[in-house]
Amino acid sequence: MRNRIQKLVQRLQEASRAYYAEDREIMSNNEYDALYDELEALERETGIILANSPTVQVGYAAVDSLPKETHARPMLSLDKTKDRDALRAFAGNQKVLLSWKLDGLTIVLTYRDGKLFKAVTRGNGVTGEVVTNNARVFVNTPLSIPHKGEVVLRGEAIITYEDFDRINETIEDVDAKYKNPRNLCSGSVRQLNNEITAQRSVRFYAFSLVSAEGIDFHNSHEQEFRWLASQGFDVVEYRVVTADSLDAAMDAFEEKIKDNPFPSDGLVALYDDIAYGESLGTTAKFPRNAIAFKWADEKRSTHLREIEWSPSRTGLLNPVAIFDPVDLEGSTVSRASVHNVSIVKELKLGIGDELEVYKANMIIPQIAVNLTASGTAEIPAFCPVCGGPTEIRTGGEAVETLYCSNPDCPAKQMKSFTLFVSRDALNMDGISESTLEKFMAHGLIHDYADLFRLEEHRETIIQMDGFGELSCSNLLESIEKARTTTVSRLLYALGIPEIGTATARLISRAFQEDLEAVRHADAEQLAALEGIGAVIARSFEAWWADTKHAASVDALLPFLTFTQEFQNQGEQKLEGLTFVITGSLNHFANRNALKKLIEDLGGKVTGSVSAKTSFLINNDVTSTSGKNKKAAELQIPILSEEDFIARFTPDAF
What element of type H or E holds 309? Predict the structure, then answer.
């Protein structure tokens, strides 16, 4: 039994580390709860509780990227239940505050002299990370409050579903997209640069007052909530209930969860009577004055139709269960990750099996149980993408995963395909990395040219999960548009090392947009170009000398038509000049638009001010920013947009 306890502790610690410290999930909530309950039972039975057991520890240690600070009062987790009767028994004859259990990142705020003084994350409950600068740019955090005595409160930083979708849409690198609002919020709150935090629309909802100097709350947590609201804080939505009125309040919350604009994984019940709650004390892990209620998972029966082995750039083949569509928590779902080979075997999956599925935290589809457990699913011996042999690898905790053993498998170049279809490259709108994975899993694409042959697989695509007639037509229309492009876009799309959009444009323009001249250019010719050093020049020449690269481009060219990008470039009046752009713009849509104009006129744009910089463009010419200071030190002129336009492009507007 001790060995089993040790294994359970290790597995749960790994899951906690991934979830709290690394913002990723390696097991479902359902699996975590089941393992946790098993561990608790074994600990009760044996009397063995290991020092690092998650039943006596809280969370996981904070990462080292931000300063750490010990909380004045430890922040304990809450005990939990999914049983209304247990919640009713908790209420007893007491008045209880029932509120949302928000799914974000817990923060402790301290105010002194009416000003926000400090913000610290929950961390491991004892030590957190100082994120004061980031808290200052939360959407709704008061920087000043009426009360001048010291105030310490706790709350949850969250990001709404709407902002989550908006932010993810702006992230072109599919690898960098966030899996859920909690992960996005955690990453946003813990940024080193609070400018990024400000762009993420983080919101703070107070759920507990630790202390407020000089205020009498008449022994009532509800009075604390009301006082916090009077100080300008958004307080988590709550209802005052008793055991008799509990069901009606919970029904109301449960109805609202379907359309909630923010993530929540349940409710919190807190005794209103402060003295009574504190008199109950705590266990090793939980306070006794509050308890969490987690929604009973809504489950639906369905049948397994396919196991799709989704490829990744590491060669890992992830099993995804495709089942008959079912309605869950207000949306239709038809697929769920099975994570690895071990889980496929544990669930004894087989095509046609009857499954029960649910959404973890009402968000992530998961398989709860396989009711028929036929165990007939075959682990593929060959990669669905390249046909190469697969191999099962055994990792920690004897977890088995499936890999493609072919080092040249196209799936291992997933990053390359993602770049190829991106906006600044071939701009195939509607093709995300997940879409590419599906196409690879069905054996539809092996090289770039195959993207232009997808019309041949229209019927297959229409039948794929997430597609239909309309979405397939839109995708093929986008691919058709991508056939017409420019040499510089292609150069960038090919993923040649060190060749970004600006360098691609520079090379294309230098060789009069002649792809044959570009691909046969030698290092000496390239190094002679302003902005192309010897290292980049040799790398570019070597890339084209690789016969595999050359063959890939040759296969692609019949599908492309090139248009002239620089035919109207006119006088190269900015040739030899280097610009740095900073701050917001008024006359140009964004920095890229101004950058393109400068490059079209022969100039160069870099990211930092140096002795080689000719001009710094900043509408706030009197700013004390780092770039302005550096420019002043080097006696580099600082131009506003209007200055730049008047001096170099008076006819542009």
Answer: strand 300-311
